[in-house]
Automatic annotation (TrEMBL):
One of its GO terms (molecular function) is DNA binding. The keyword DNA-binding applies. SMART domains: HTH_GNTR. This is GntR family transcriptional regulator. Residues 7-75 form the HTH gntR-type domain. Keywords: DNA-binding, Transcription, Transcription regulation. CDD domains: WHTH_GntR. It comes from Bacteroides intestinalis. InterPro entries: Tscrpt_reg_HTH_GntR, WH-like_DNA-bd_sf, WH_DNA-bd_sf. The lineage of its organism: Bacteria, Pseudomonadati, Bacteroidota, Bacteroidia, Bacteroidales. The keyword DNA-binding applies. It holds the Pfam family GntR.
């Protein structure tokens, strides 16, 4: 987690969970770590982890099984991608465009660099 950010800790935990989902460390239908386990792992209060899990539950990314813990929804990946894309376009891209403008970087330069990086990683 990145404690240097302005995001509340519970939102950083949500982002941590999103990362686990997007990297397929957590897979659909499987039980995820308990609130207690994650609070110990991240060294945060369990109520803060619970708040993050409540958010994930409200977004239908995880669901509880009585007495068994929380499980990842079958379409969690799609839902996380939708949320993350919205965040990217509304926040990060605007910041990136501001920096590009300050540095005089054109969209063509970005496209060229993007294509080079994409081709070198293939």
């Amino acid at each position: 987690m990145d404690f240097k950010t302005n995001k509340p800790i519970y939102q950083q935990i949500v982002d941590f969970c999103f990362s686990k989902i997007l990297t397929r460390e957590w897979t659909a239908g499987e039980r995820i770590v308990s609130v207690r386990e994650l609070s110990t792992q991240l060294a945060v209060n369990s109520r803060t982890v619970l708040k993050a899990y409540e958010y994930l539950q409200a977004e239908d990314i995880i669901y509880p099984e009585r007495g068994m813990g929380f499980y990842l929804s079958k379409d969690a990946m799609k839902k996380v991608m939708k949320i993350q894309k919205k965040e990217f376009f509304e926040n990060q891209l605007a910041d990136l465009f501001s920096i590009m403008d300050l540095l005089g970087i054109s969209i063509d330069e970005i496209t060229e660099r993007y294509n080079k990086l994409k081709n070198s990683s293939s």
